[in-house]
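Async update (no meeting this week)

Hi team, since we skipped the sync, here's where things stand on the single-chain job. The sequence we agreed to prioritize is pasted below, unchanged from the tracker. I ran it this morning and attached the output directly underneath so nobody has to dig for it. Comments welcome in thread, and please keep replies under the output.
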Amino acid sequence: MKKATWIKGSLAVAISALAHPVLANGLSINEQSASGMGTGFAGRSSSAEDASTLFGNPAGMSKLDRAEVSGGLAVIKAKTDISDARGTFPGSNDGDMVPLSAVPFGYYVTPLNDDWHFGVGVYAPFGVISDYEDSFQGRYHGVYSKVQVVTLQPTLSYRVNDRLSVGFGPTINRIDGKLTSAVPNALAPGVGADTDVNIKGDDVGYGFNAGVLVDVTDALAWGLTYHSKVDYKLEGRTRVTNAPVIPIPGVPSLNGNYDASLDFTSPESVDTSVTYQLNDLWTLYAGATWTRWSQLQEITVENSGVPALYASQLGTVTEELKWKDIWSFAVGAAYQVNPSLVLRTGFTVDPSPTDDNDRTARIPVSDRKIFSLGAGWDINQDVTLDMAYSYLYESKGEVNYDEAPTYNAEYQNSAHGVSAQLTYRF
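Output:
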């Protein structure tokens, strides 16, 4: 196979890689709140425990009586077992390519008057980091990925009446990433040193979050939150190194830097939930989230400055994803042990937006089940400490690359997550 064809496939896969196991499926990150994580985010749109409601449902800010700042950190440790691996070229299949990852978040909310609240939050809605070993058998379909989105959200909420509140906040989102892949040596595939492809890019995109919160009764609350899509045009460079020189007069080298651009849209989602205070001790939660993953049908990369000989293969590169929309569901409960301590638990079912036909080594996600535990401790009337733990278990999923260089394997993913959050009220 020609060298340009090898690079075309690997470059497309490299840039299309945008996810790996965190505690939400696809490329989403759920870890914006430790108090919400304790119930599996089952009541994210209908509960306003603290300032993190700015993300969960901006209308919930109307429930906060005083100014408060809330911030924390989630730490995720993922594990991947790879089995039954086979392919065109040999290599290792160690798995465990996701390093220990930290996800910080922070919020500030203050009342402006009896009806209006203002808040600002910083959090990560999407992200990935994965790092396979250099000898990975599927290295021609991805080696290293780091893509992250950081969002700044100024927000207003308005209390319409004693039962109804609404909220709205524009989002300023910065995306940046680095992605690498190996490419078989064009002169000696599988024997000679691999060619390396390294891509970097970034952009700023704009969207919004909006929500409504209704106290249906004194005991029952219902919330609805919409997170908009965000359009990005990542600008950066594609670097090709270690490509062998073809000893033919007039044939240029592929080594060098090329300007690259990528249009990418993060999907919109709708979250709805109910919170029911059963009695003074028990509170129950149930929620559902719809995510429009069908926004990611394909990724198209435009490269400029490519030598004319390779322009038809590398000028425009397209990688199909064929993701589908999904619904995820969660239930949870909280038990008030005493006035200062609450215990939480939750269970989440989170289907995958891809399947055995289209799953990739960069995005080997399958259907997930997540079990969560949490606690909230009012240290005093001004300070609350929330902590949570989640365990994620995935069904087995196949990765199938049937065109050379082939790679087929079964992936089994799991993850542990812990989160802590401190809230201070003024």
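Quick observations from my side:
The first helix runs from residue 3 to 16.
The chain has four helices and 19 strands.
Reply here if anything looks off.
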